[in-house]
Design brief:
Blueprint: E1 18-24, H1 30-38, E2 42-49, E3 51-56, H2 58-65, E4 70-77, E5 82-86, E6 98-103, E7 106-110, E8 129-131, E9 136-141, H3 157-161, H4 165-175, H5 186-201, E10 205-207, E11 210-215, E12 218-223, E13 225-229, E14 234-244, H6 261-280, E15 285-292, H7 295-298, H8 300-312, E16 318-324, E17 335-340, H9 346-359, E18 363-368, H10 377-381, E19 386-391, H11 414-432, H12 437-442
Amino acid sequence: MLPALALLSGLALPAAGDHAFVVDIAKADAARVEALKHGDGARWWLELGDRLVVAGAREPLARLIGERDRLGEIADVTPEQLALRARGCKEHDAAVGTLLARGGRWELRRLAAGEALPAPDSDEPHAQWRAVQPDSVVARQYRLDHAVAAAPDPLVQPLVDAVDADRWFADVTTLAGWDRSSYGTTSLTQARDWIGDRFAALGLAVTKPAFTFPGSGGSVTRSNVIGTWTGTRLPDEWIVVGGHYDSRNTNLSSTTNAPGAEDNATGCAGVIELARILVANRPERSVLFMCYAGEEQGLYGSKAHVTQLQQTGDLARVRSVVIMDMIGYSTDTTLNADYETYPAFAAYMNGFAAAAATYVPQLQVTTSANAWGSDHVPYLDAAKPTVLAIESDYDVYPHYHRSTDLPANIGPNARAMGAAILKTNVAVLANEAGASDRIFADRE
């Protein structure tokens, strides 16, 4: 997991605030976390996954926290001076304030005197910056509230076991052989058609609906790729499994040198891998396996799909959605993933965390109801139960949004990381889509 960055800011601010500590809670239990939040001297706190910021009176807090788990201190701070910045959002732009800590998919930053919270981008209103609400959970380690995992379901376990990490990574490698910028044409079209061929080979009905979005030279027309499985018993109930197939490098408008292995050949190949497994088990519900273009430019492919569903009256058919974006990189053999949604769909999100605890216990899941910045957002805004699955180390991946985002550079833990997320997702989808042996057993 990412180390927190917490340093004395050195800013000249009035000495009217609290003294705050950034605490490592990666191995703390729930009782310890609560003791830190409400212990002697604590006045307010902010939970960021495996990091906890506790503020109040310095001396009693210092005794409560101890040296071992103390990652840093911030003097004379108030919640009004702090802001949350989406990790990875506009990563090539300079950020205001001083970085204090990272956790979940967010950075905690301290604004200098006179610095205002940046206004949201009209193209990404759910991303970038948010004000800090004291005594709130930005992201939470699932294990803190669920110490005991359920036993594996013997009718779901075979689907989990069917995930083939080598087969998935071979697809990652193939996709990374094309430049897939949505501003490009030939290479992106080749990738689009290859994905369609993979879906067709599984017996799916393939469509490639076009959509437009603005480019520097006028409107750009690109296509999503949809492989549709029609449910055997409940065809009018739809599950969406998606990930974007376009890519970029540091220069967003560049049409070359954009192999996009981690971002997001991993997620797109994950959609194909899940299609192989689920289709073989003949789901009762319909499943739309989707790979979107235009994500990097502003979620245009997923927005177009939601708009299409609304226009055709099919949005009501969508039961649930899972999106995969960057699922292969891990800095070490400790595997961590973030699952996020909106507050209304926390129960759906927690089902994925529970599946990880049961079927992939080596995967440590952090959950968050502060969703932003990928193809899950348009579905969430349309009030559909949707989660994003993403590995936790994406923003320290050295090749993120670079021409060097190649399969070899995802690192030695890629297969284990990707397989862990895919196994988690297929365990949930087996029940969501009705794609386990239980379906046949119940009808006998």
